[in-house]
Every structure is written in C-alpha cells, then in structure tokens.
Amino acid sequence: MTLADLYQSDGCTISFELFPPKTDEGIDLLCQNVERLLRFQPQYFTCTYGAGGSSQRATLEVLKRVKEITQLPVASHLTCVGSTVDQLCDYLQKATEMGVDYIVALRGDPPKGTDQFEQTSGGLQYANELVELIGKKFPDLGVAVAGYPEVHQEAPDAKTDMDNLKRKVDAGADIVITQLFYDNADFYRFRDDCQKAGIDIPIVPGVLPVTNFKQAQRIAGMCKAAIPANLEAAMTAVESAEDQFHVGVEHARQQTIDLMANGVPGIHYYVLNKSDAAAELLDGLSIQGPVS
Questions:
Q1: By the 8 A CB rule, do 234 and 251 touch?
Q2: In a domain, 84, yes or no
C-alpha cells in the first residue's frame, strides 16, 4: 500500500509524529507511549531529527524500534540543511535498508542564530529539489511535503507560498501534511486555495494538542500560528496545570471532530512523544482508517 493509498478510504487516517529522545530511558518511554497509541489504529508513525541533521542516526534507530513494535509503515523527516546531495542519498540508502517506507521531505529551518537558509555547497536549496531527488534515486519511497495554512514565515505572501507548495507537489509528492494550526478556518481556507491551485493530492491537517498556555505561546511564536481568542481565554481562566491540560486537549478534540465532519482524509498528530493528550482527545471517537 502506497502513502497516497492510505488516504483513499471513507474513514479518517490517523498518524503520529515522534522525535528522537536523547537518552535510553527516553526511548523506552517513547516505545511505551507508541504501544498505547496503537489502540487508535494509526496507519504510520513519523520521526523528526535535530537541527542540521544532528540526530539523524537516532531517528533511524527510533523508527526501527517503532516498526518492530507496531509492524506499521514508518516515515523519516529529511531536510536539505547541512547536507550535500551525496550525503542525502547516503541517508536515504540507510533509511531504505532499515525499513523506512516514507520520507517527509523538507527544506529545513535556517541554522540557530540565523534567519536565512543557506544552501550547502553541493547540496539542495529547495524542498521540491529534494522531492525530485527521492523520486529519481529512491522511487519506492513515498513522499510527504509540508503545507502552511497560515503561510510560511519566510514567504512574502500567500500566493508565493502556494506556488512553492505546487512545485513540491508537481515534483512528485504523494501527500501534503500541514503545519499545526489552532483555528480550523485557517485549514479550510488553505484547502480551498490548494484546490484552486490544482493540487489534488490528499491535504492532511496537522494537529498539536497543547497542554499548557506557555507551551501554546512558545509554539505559536516558533510557527507563526495564531492562538484563537477563545482558546487563550479558556487557558488563562484556569490556573492548575491539570486544568490547562484538559482545556488544551478539549480544544484539539473539538478540532478533530470538526475536521472529520468536514471530510479530511486523515489527521497527523504532533504528540511530542507522549500519549496522554492523544489518548484523551481520541477516546471514544469513531475513526476508521483504510484496511491494510
């Protein structure tokens, strides 16, 4: 089953994103949470890596463990940052040998302390070039690319951002996974714009259940994702960490219910290696993904 095929059913395909822990204890805890998340019948897991490729090897080890535990497809993030074409191909070869099924192909963020991406000598400058490279050298790997409902922070306007996304799709992407957002109206507007631009592959919303207001503010600042007034009011109206957790999770649950009612092909959850928030927001919801 290809990556695109996972989104061809009438149900809502669920996937979860992880990141590589820094300690053996963290990896053990991650694996425990992955096992808990299996009850929601995810179709695959993805794993990021650190800035500039600092934890690429750890990413592959995490994905190997996850695949052993779940017997599900797994996807590795891959960016253009700090890598030559040969190094990218070397990573893709290792990923393939370790059983990685899909790649989340990204240009990558500028190095810490800078606000401008710099192309590595002998490397790639744009994500669409990475998608093309994967399609040419590793055609059996499914490819997801990123979309930005509230416009990429480096894009001068929404049209330029959409043109960039169209280039990635035309280069051979199978699906688009969006950056997190807190207001579903932003996603629906983005989805409509994708349709107008001739993008006809699955557009998968990315949802992060925020569990405290400081976290929401920090992530919103990093991703340029606006916090709706009702969410801010609800989270600041309570004081305890437990109450803020439930407010944030309930907001993500209502996002999920509304997204499903509006026909999204799937939802990608940024779970931050934990399972409590995802378990609470998904508990009791009727989600039926494709039959493998």
A1: yes
A2: yes
